[in-house]
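Comment thread on ticket #2218

A.B. wrote:
> Attaching the input chain for the structure job we discussed in standup.
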Amino acid sequence: MENLKAQTTMVLVILVIIIFTGLAVFLLSLSSTFNQDEYLNLYASNLLLAVLRADTGYSDADCRQVADLVACAYFVPTHRCDLTGPACGDIANATIAGHMERFDLIRKNFDYLFVVEPKDFISQTQIKIGNPDLDCDISDKGCASRQRFVVEEKIQKTAGRSVPFILNVRLILARRSSASRPPRQLV
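C.D. wrote:
> Ran it. Output below, let me know if you need it in another format.
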């Protein structure tokens, strides 16, 4: 009888090990890993949101966050923040460029372009901040050779007589070609 008790315990231990191994394999098969393209799309999306929500330090309602600045720069580019400060358009250019320089991945490896345009109507007016060469058609051979990551965010603001407008803000990221990379500085 003692022999059977030891065998039963051993069978139960092996059965528990098999169940835990199967459970571990099942859970690992459910977890998916990001490939580099998915990671960069996620990075670009979060980068756009982080930049648009960043505080500018101005107390004027049209200049508090970068999203407010972008809308102000689109609708009234000559508006002065805090009445005596610089114009919205100038601050938007400097602020977005400054925020993009703070991210090492972008500064070292990528070119970027912010494009602001209206959503519901066709307009030739666009605000472009960054490398304008990135805003090209897919049929363009120079553009097709560079892998681009494009993310969009919408900003709803009122302009004029409290008419709501929706602006599309696109962030386009593309790896720098070796020819357009700035030379490395030796430290």
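A.B. wrote:
> Thanks. Noting for the ticket: The longest strand covers residues 163-175.
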